[in-house]
Amino acid sequence: MLTDPRGPWPDSVAGLTRLKSKFVIAPLSNGNVALLTNMAKFAGLPWDLILSAELFEHYKPDPETYLGAARLLCLKPEQVMMVAAHNGDLAAAQKNGLKTAFVARPTEYGPLQKVDFEATGNWDIVAKDFGGIADRLGC
Length: 139
Fold this sequence. Notes:
Blueprint: E1 2-4, E2 7-8, H1 12-20, E3 28-29, H2 33-43, E4 51-52, H3 63-72, E5 81-84, H4 87-95, E6 99-103, E7 125-127, H5 130-136
Parallel strand pairs: 3-4, 5-6, 6-7
Antiparallel strand pairs: 1-2
Helix pairs in contact: 1-5
């Protein structure tokens, strides 16, 4: 979610805050809990909780990561939406029954990025930023 050490993507805090008004929001990352906690603290990310693959001792794209997140939230997979800038991550989430949303991050991988400029799957939502996802979800 961070573009560089200077802070979050420009739309992140406002968009996540809008989404938080109706939904529980949390990262589901292969990053560890300490990293994600520091991201939230220093970037002002309004997450409700942190879901790290570290908690499941399985890492994306392992199904246990996606299904474990739903299980910890006491939700069915189809009640959870994975939002990502990575088509591969969304494909794995979708394969495990989660809803999906793609948000473009054209510099996610730095200046030599070669993939994930646009949605390549049949995702539930495709948006240019988190504000667009909030719009689509009525937040």
